[in-house]
């Protein structure tokens, strides 16, 4: 294996999205990731479909959801509720650098697989826990799901059409964005802990929670409230601090304008055929445009609706005005820039053939992202991991499979 994290081993005891997303990033960067799953059922998302990707002979399938977060991993199916399964995890911990888990608070303590227990086996272990609400506080025992956290963490209160307009009401983001951001923060914490371990030789406990991440990610909207005391409201596609910065209708669809400064606005006015707007004291500065958005935005809409999207984008790009079409996802993956950046890739799988995957956005010049393996079938590498990492004999593994401690893809 290659990559900046080559030589590190990760035990991924997480499931669904936030934890697996973090583990996939670590795998992309070269770490050896062993995904620990329940025999028979595996990660919940294996059954979150359709759609599924099915093998040529129809005997194997993986859900698209599972495929999104589990490349560059080996699947080892272990029943951690059994004594022998717990012992296998402890033996793997002694040979690992990082453990990721997203069980409920205290959920692994009953198995002796919590941080306090495992750090006695491996003091260099970096143990990352992801929960919905954190390890303490009045909500600590609650389960957390992305949709729930988007609501409780304020994101849905600022997403959707304003009150009084058609379709008004809170709306969730179209992907599980809080899960994704939590996976990113978990990865950052793990990398920071690795740097600390490099200097001191000691591992540590890393914790992050979906609610904490969502509150943190309110970013400027949170500061708008803290600075002014005014509660941000839903504004559709409009921006609370910048105008024009939203979607505008065209003759054949919609386009987005993201005008970030006054010079860009002046160039926009030229292209729209209304250079006088840039000299109008109501619109000449961003501060004025925010105050007078109700007068300005309808004027821009009346202009943009006169020509097709592609014509506007071509002219506005020439004028260096930030803009773009509102692409459907099929258009995203046929976009020349997306293709040029290798954001659509394929991986070979022994039973599923060519498996599509979305590229990692990290570009490293000396240690590039490594696309080694497609997301695994449940228990696909159980025997391989137990043989190579723990040195178990085929006979011992056969016995563990018969007892139901270990799941084997060949079952």
Structure report:
- The structure is a single chain.
- The protein is α/β, with parallel strands linked by helices.
- It has 2 domains: 9-216 and 339-407, 3-Layer(aba) Sandwich (Rossmann fold); 245-249 and 254-325, formyl-coa transferase, domain 3.
- Helix content is 35%, strand content 16%.
- The chain is built from 16 helices and 14 strands.
- It has helices at 18-28, 64-67, 83-93, 115-118, 146-152, 177-200, 210-216, 219-228, 262-272, 286-291, 293-304, 309-318, 329-332, 336-340, 382-388, 394-402, and strands at residues 9-12, 32-37, 52-54, 61-63, 73-78, 98-101, 126-131, 205-209, 245-249, 254-258, 323-325, 344-349, 353-358, 406-407.
- It has a 7-stranded mixed beta sheet, sandwiched between helices. A 3-stranded antiparallel beta sheet has the order 9-10-11, with helices on one face. It has a two-stranded antiparallel sheet with strand order 3-4.
- A hairpin with a 6-residue loop joins strand 3 (52-54) and strand 4.
- Helix 1 packs across helix 6 (177-200) and helix 6 (177-200) crosses helix 7.
- The longest helix has 24 residues, at 177-200.
Topology:
Blueprint: E1 9-12, H1 18-28, E2 32-37, E3 52-54, E4 61-63, H2 64-67, E5 73-78, H3 83-93, E6 98-101, H4 115-118, E7 126-131, H5 146-152, H6 177-200, E8 205-209, H7 210-216, H8 219-228, E9 245-249, E10 254-258, H9 262-272, H10 286-291, H11 293-304, H12 309-318, E11 323-325, H13 329-332, H14 336-340, E12 344-349, E13 353-358, H15 382-388, H16 394-402, E14 406-407
Parallel strand pairs: 1-2, 1-6, 2-5, 6-7, 7-8
Antiparallel strand pairs: 3-4, 5-14, 9-10, 10-11, 12-13
Helix pairs in contact: 1-6, 6-7
